[in-house]
């Protein structure tokens, strides 16, 4: 768990440095694009998981 925390901490530091650098230059760096893509993929995965769990729960209800 500690190694995952260190990895995310590293990526967060890189992301904030990239954002700060982008603000100064007015550009979007590759790091920002990759982080945005990763967050979008994570959001899609979470949405799909929630949708499937809710659908399975709804299908298992006995209303009759």
Mean pLDDT across the residues is 84
* Protein structure class: mainly alpha
Specify the number of helices.
2
Estimated radius of gyration:
19 Å
What's the total count of β strands? 0
Distance between the termini: 46 Å
H-E string:
HH
Main sheet: strands, sense, barrel: none
Identify low-pLDDT runs.
none
Shape: elongated
Number of domains: 1
Estimated share of beta-strand residues = under 5%
Estimate the helix proportion, in percent.
Answer: over 70%
Task: Please characterize this protein's 3D structure.
By secondary structure, this protein is mostly helical. The protein has helices at 2-25, 30-60. The longest helix has 31 residues, at 30-60. It starts with a helix and ends with a helix. The relative contact order is 0.07. The mean pLDDT is 84.
Please summarize what this structure is.
Helix content is 86%, strand content 0%.
Describe how the helices and strands are arranged.
Elements: H1 2-25, H2 30-60
List descriptors:
64 residues, mainly alpha, 2 helices, 0% strand
């Amino acid at each position: 768990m500690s190694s995952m925390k260190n990895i995310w901490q590293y990526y967060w530091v890189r992301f904030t440095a990239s954002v700060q650098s982008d603000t100064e230059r007015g550009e979007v760096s590759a790091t920002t694009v990759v982080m945005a893509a990763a967050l979008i993929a994570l959001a899609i995965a979470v949405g799909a998981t929630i949708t499937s769990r809710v659908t399975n729960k709804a299908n298992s209800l006995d209303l009759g």
